[in-house]
Amino acid sequence: MADIKYYDVIKKPVITEKSMNAMAEKKYTFLVHPEANKSQIKEAVEKMFEGTKVKSVNTMNMDGKKKRRGMTVGTSAKTKKAIVALTEDSKDIEIFEGL
Question: What distance in Å separates the CA atoms of residue 22 and residue 10, rounded to the nearest whole number?
Fold first, then answer.
């Protein structure tokens, strides 16, 4: 496994209706590096966003979708998502700063 730095772990936030509703409960969803584990994701969130304390991290591997172009069939890339729950005394994450 390659040595992954904390700034390479989080790729981008997931902006969907479901993830925006979860932000009210201090749960944030990110696309992360496929080889990153929960402790690396926790470290990356706490270092990248000042004043945050991570309570728990849930991860899920998303398989690529089948794509078709004429007779040729292929798949899109696999991704990994992480749902990060913050503690109640933690500062909120402003994910729209860099967008």
Answer: 18
Q: Alpha-carbon torsion 59, 60, 64, 65, what sign?
A: negative
* Cβ pair 58, 45 in contact under 8 A: no
pTM for this prediction: 0.85
Q: What are phi and psi of 42, to 5 degrees?
A: -60, -45
Q: Which of 89, 97, 87, 86 is nearest to 28 (CA)?
A: 86
Phi and psi torsions of 66, nearest 5°:
-75, 130
Tens digit of each residue's pLDDT, the chain (99 residues)? 568 898 999 999 999 999 999 999 999 999 999 999 999 999 999 999 999 999 999 999 999 999 999 999 999 999 999 999 999 998 888 876 555
